[in-house]
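FAQ

Q: What does a record look like?
A: Structure on top, sequence underneath. For example:
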């Protein structure tokens, strides 16, 4: 095989990575939409407990310890334990992944477990019509939190500053900080703002489903996560690599650019 066919030019490699970053960021939007709907469904339908937003659960636990009214203490603990278990197990899966990959295959594997957990959640929810006993509610919380823990650890392993898909505080913090450098942070601000909008939209959709179509509410996050896993498996197969020369990417998920064709121009990722 000749050198011209064995090696990929920097222009082609940079274009491939640019497409990969675009695909990754769109998948992150879908995951954020999913987690927003998950928390809305669990909060409204399972005793005011979150399974993705752990900050809220720590506050609820503190309220209960202090004697204030709040969600059932054991339900909160089950959600927190399920989330922690998911993060622990997912970290063992994704830790060996190469940080140079835009979307390592191990991330897709971890998100497949999230999908399985959401399928189990939907099956149990449908079997009780969305109205179960306290024991059933706690089982649902544990299953959902386990899946959200897997998702959080998988996304965290990508190393993108301010992006978790299951919590808004870090994203909102980075977005607010970027606003101090308005002229230089347009791509990041657009990306982070889109994630916050997706989280809100997911919560709106999840809330509407619980109120108006409670029986089928879990199908929304299930379909969103299923779409993410399917697209990731097709777009980032096991053999996928950016050949020869990769384009450097900073901790905020930007393409910092390479020279193109000997010209001084630079390629920079411009949001979604």
């Amino acid at each position: 095989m000749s050198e011209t066919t064995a090696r990929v030019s920097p222009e082609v490699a940079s274009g491939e990575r640019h497409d990969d970053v675009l695909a990754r960021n769109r998948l992150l939007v879908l995951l954020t939409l999913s987690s927003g709907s998950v928390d809305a469904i669990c909060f409204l339908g399972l005793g005011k407990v979150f399974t993705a937003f752990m900050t809220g659960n720590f506050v609820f636990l503190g309220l209960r310890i202090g004697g204030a009214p709040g969600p059932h203490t054991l339900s909160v603990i089950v959600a927190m334990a399920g989330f922690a278990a998911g993060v622990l197990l997912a970290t063992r899966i994704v830790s060996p992944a190469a940080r140079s990959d835009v979307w390592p295959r191990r991330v897709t594997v971890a998100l497949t477990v999230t999908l399985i957990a959401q399928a189990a959640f939907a099956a149990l929810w449908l079997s009780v019509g969305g109205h179960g006993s306290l024991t059933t509610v706690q089982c649902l919380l544990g299953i959902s939190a386990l899946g959200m823990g897997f998702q959080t650890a998988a996304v965290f392993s990508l190393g993108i500053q301010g992006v978790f898909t299951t919590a808004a505080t870090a994203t909102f913090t980075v977005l607010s900080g970027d606003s101090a450098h308005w002229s230089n942070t347009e791509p990041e601000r657009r990306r982070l703002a889109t994630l916050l909008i997706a989280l809100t939209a997911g919560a709106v959709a999840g809330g509407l489903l619980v109120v108006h179509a409670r029986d089928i509410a879990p199908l929304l996050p299930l379909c969103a996560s299923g779409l993410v896993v399917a697209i990731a498996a097709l777009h980032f197969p096991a053999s996928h690599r950016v050949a020869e020369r990769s384009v450097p990417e900073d901790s905020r998920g930007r393409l910092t650019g390479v020279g193109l064709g000997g010209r001084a121009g630079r390629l920079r990722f411009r949001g979604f």
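Q: Is there anything notable about this one?
A: Confidence is low (pLDDT under 50) at residues 1-6, 239-248, 254-271.
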